[in-house]
């Protein structure tokens, strides 16, 4: 049951967000036109291919089932979404339905009075389970609908591993370093990294922190925004040591994550690099960038390797959720739409279109891609799953963390600077 424990750490976020209340806002929203019909605006991040087609068809089905309701769709490139959405929220011209990933980022939106409680019906709650709603729950109320559950790990090309003479997936960081050496010797870029977008580079620090820091330390940081445990600096030191093996593609600092054949996902899709650390949306992005726009036949997955000397529990994972929220002035039909798309047939369609793991437990049987089945198996065995740290700790702290990691990889900072940047951002909260 994939939704049984999406995060242990998210519970700390809920406790840390206690007392947040939504104040009145003047966000732009839907409402009746001259005829009294209801119109809503909907922003998502699927600009091409199967994902865009899925949302077009699903919205059309909802409109057909709800005469008088019209949804205007705007698809926005993923890397542009956060900035445009924040601008729209702050200007009072937010879309009625917008992407949300829970955690501290959503808590900030709720605190600013920019989102409303989502009315989750009984059928949806039963299908999804309480755990997946934890990251969208603030002060006991649900402010977002989870669509997919996205644990992270390392995707790789089986063909390129074979070409380099790698016969087993890395289990330890030393194994990963050895694989990097073999791939480089075979003339293959070992790891694709889209550091231009910052968060993919920061994912490496997140996972080193997951191995270095205990669950209790991660919980404490989410609750009180303190980062004084030595494990935070150890995570940076471990990443710095790993980066000295030069594992990333040439030009990784100017490589985007998901836009075009030259992106990190595109390098995997076209066998120009062997590995990428990413969440469970990656197979769908990669599929959209292969020459035939079909899933990569040799794509496989393994969990982030173990690292000696840390306090993180073996097998712990990190990931997130993709979901949607309703802006403050959205009509009741916003919640109705979010429940509509959680029906089994639409969750199955979502999983197929995005090549990902659906939040609804009822729809999980549709998942057949080997890489995703491997993710699911590891997820079900994980002792706990933390939210992505930039999601967990909120936009300001998350941005500081992401920027600090990129600076270190660019030779313009170190592990101490990463922690200090986070501490400084947290002090402004």
Could you please describe the fold and organization of this structure?
The chain is of the alpha+beta class and 429 residues long. It folds into 2 domains: 198 residues, 3-Layer(aba) Sandwich (D-Maltodextrin-Binding Protein, domain 2), CATH 3.40.190; 206 residues, D-Maltodextrin-Binding Protein, domain 2 (3-Layer(aba) Sandwich), CATH 3.40.190.10. 45% of the residues lie in helices and 16% in strands. It contains 19 helices and 13 strands. Strands 4, 5, 8, 9, 10, 11, 12 and 13 form an 8-stranded mixed β-sheet that branches. The two termini are 36 Å apart.
In brief:
The protein has 429 residues and is of the alpha+beta class. It is built from 19 helices and 13 strands. Strands 4, 5, 8, 9, 10, 11, 12 and 13 form an eight-stranded mixed sheet that branches.
For CATH, the homologous superfamily of the largest domain is named as Periplasmic binding protein-like II
Beta-strand content estimate: 15-25%
Structural class assignment: alpha+beta
Domain unit count: 2
Number of helices: 19
User: Mean pLDDT, nearest integer?
Assistant: 89
Label this structure with key terms:
2 domains; globular; 19 helices; 429 residues; alpha+beta; disordered N terminus; D-Maltodextrin-Binding Protein, domain 2
Helix and strand arrangement:
Layout: H1 9-16, E1 31-32, E2 38-44, H2 49-65, E3 69-75, H3 78-91, E4 97-100, H4 103-111, E5 115-116, H5 122-128, H6 130-133, E6 137-138, E7 141-142, E8 145-157, H7 158-163, H8 173-185, E9 189-191, H9 199-212, H10 215-224, H11 231-243, H12 264-269, E10 273-279, H13 282-289, E11 299-302, E12 317-327, H14 333-340, H15 344-354, H16 370-381, E13 385-387, H17 389-393, H18 395-409, H19 415-427
Parallel strand pairs: 2-3, 9-10, 12-13
Antiparallel strand pairs: 1-2, 4-12, 5-12, 6-7, 8-10, 8-11, 8-12
Helix pairs in contact: 1-10, 2-15, 9-11, 9-18, 11-19, 18-19
Signal peptide: 1-22
Protein name: Multiple sugar transport system substrate-binding protein/raffinose/stachyose/melibiose transport system substrate-binding protein
Organism: Cellulomonas humilata
């Amino acid at each position: 049951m994939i939704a049984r424990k999406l995060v242990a750490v998210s519970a700390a976020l809920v406790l840390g967000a206690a007392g947040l209340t939504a104040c009145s806002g003047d966000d732009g929203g839907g409402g009746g036109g001259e005829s009294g019909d209801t119109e809503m605006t909907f922003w998502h991040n699927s600009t091409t291919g199967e994902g865009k087609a899925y949302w077009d068809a699903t919205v059309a089905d909802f409109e057909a089932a709800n005469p008088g309701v019209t949804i205007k769709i705007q698809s926005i490139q993923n890397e542009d979404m956060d900035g445009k959405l924040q601008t729209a929220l702050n200007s009072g011209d937010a879309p009625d339905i917008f992407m949300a990933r829970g955690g501290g980022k959503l808590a900030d939106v709720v605190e600013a009075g920019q989102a409303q409680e989502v009315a989750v019906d009984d059928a949806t709650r039963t299908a999804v389970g309480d755990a997946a709603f934890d990251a969208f729950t603030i002060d006991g109320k649900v402010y977002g609908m989870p669509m997919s559950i996205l644990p992270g790990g390392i995707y790789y090309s089986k063909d390129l591993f074979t070409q380099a003479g790698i016969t087993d997936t890395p289990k330890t960081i030393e194994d990963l370093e050895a694989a990097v050496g073999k791939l480089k010797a075979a003339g293959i870029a070992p790891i694709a990294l889209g550091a231009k977008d910052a968060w993919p580079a920061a994912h490496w620090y997140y996972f080193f922190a997951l191995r270095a820091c205990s669950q209790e330390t991660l919980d404490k940081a989410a609750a009180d925004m303190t980062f004084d445990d030595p494990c935070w600096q150890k995570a940076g030191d471990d990443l710095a040591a790993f980066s000295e093996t030069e594992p990333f593609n040439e030009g990784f600092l100017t490589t985007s994550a998901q836009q075009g054949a030259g992106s990190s996902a595109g390098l995997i899709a076209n066998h120009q690099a062997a590995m990428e650390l990413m969440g469970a949306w990656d197979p769908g992005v990669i599929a959209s960038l292969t020459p035939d726009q079909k899933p990569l036949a040799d794509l496989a997955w393994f969990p982030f390797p173990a690292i000696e000397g840390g306090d993180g529990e073996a097998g712990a994972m990190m990931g997130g959720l993709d979901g949607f929220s309703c802006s403050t002035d959205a009509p009741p039909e916003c919640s109705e739409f979010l429940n509509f798309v959680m029906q089994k047939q639409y969750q199955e369609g979502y999983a197929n279109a995005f090549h990902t793991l659906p939040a609804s437990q009822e729809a999980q049987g549709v998942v057949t891609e080997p890489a995703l089945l491997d993710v699911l198996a590891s997820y079900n065995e994980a002792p706990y799953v933390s939210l992505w740290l930039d999601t967990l700790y909120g936009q300001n702290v998350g941005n500081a963390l992401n920027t600090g990691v990129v600076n270190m990889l660019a030779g313009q900072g170190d592990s101490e600077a990463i922690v200090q940047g986070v501490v400084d951002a947290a002090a402004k909260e």
